[in-house]
Amino acid sequence: MSGSAEEYDKMSEEERKAKDKADRAKEQAEQAALPYKWTQILGELDVHVPVPKGTRGKNLAVVIQKKKLSVGLKGSEDKILDGELCKEIKVEDSTWTLEDDVVLIHLEKLNQQWWENVLTHHPKLDTRKIEPADSKLSDLDGETRGMVEKMMFDNQQKQMGKPTSDELKKMEALKKFQAAHPEMDFSNAKIS
């Protein structure tokens, strides 16, 4: 069942919880079926790609480009993974290594934002439901954490076409000012 945001808003708290749980279970099943595991924080992403036992680094063909990633074995047409990255990365800061039959790929995101998936053709995560715990938000100091939470809030608001926290503050301040000065006409006022 794929519901729109409007449908979701009409649901009761219980229905939302059930839908979120079902969506999460579906997401986890889709992610588990991928030929790799991945984790992310706002600015970076790690991909763990299992390779056949005994594979050596020199046997691997790993391509990391601004918007492309592929991992395969030299001499084999079949790639373990191959496709367009969800968003752009900083190539010079991204690396790969081979450890215990797993290729560890570290990608530095070009912009600090949540990715829905690693490769565009793979199942997506609902980035609005990312738990800050996954991002080690708890490790950040109060000020940085507040900044990151504000960025996440503003990002969500923008995606939904709603005002950001700064815009909300300006609107609130204007409302208070209007209430304090009923004699003034604000009908043509523009918030900038």
From TrEMBL:
<dbReference type="Pfam" id="PF04969">
    <property type="entry name" value="CS"/>
</dbReference>
<feature type="compositionally biased region" description="Basic and acidic residues">
    <location>
        <begin position="7"/>
        <end position="29"/>
    </location>
</feature>
<dbReference type="GO" id="GO:0051082">
    <property type="term" value="F:unfolded protein binding"/>
</dbReference>
<keyword id="KW-0963">Cytoplasm</keyword>
<dbReference type="InterPro" id="IPR008978">
    <property type="entry name" value="HSP20-like_chaperone"/>
</dbReference>
<dbReference type="GO" id="GO:0006457">
    <property type="term" value="P:protein folding"/>
</dbReference>
<comment type="function">
    <text>Required for nuclear movement. May interact between microtubules and nuclei and/or may be involved in the generation of force used to move nuclei during interphase.</text>
</comment>
<feature type="region of interest" description="Disordered">
    <location>
        <begin position="1"/>
        <end position="29"/>
    </location>
</feature>
<dbReference type="InterPro" id="IPR007052">
    <property type="entry name" value="CS_dom"/>
</dbReference>
<dbReference type="GO" id="GO:0005737">
    <property type="term" value="C:cytoplasm"/>
</dbReference>
<dbReference type="InterPro" id="IPR037898">
    <property type="entry name" value="NudC_fam"/>
</dbReference>
<feature type="domain" description="CS">
    <location>
        <begin position="31"/>
        <end position="119"/>
    </location>
</feature>
<protein>
    <recommendedName>
        <fullName>Nuclear movement protein nudC</fullName>
    </recommendedName>
</protein>
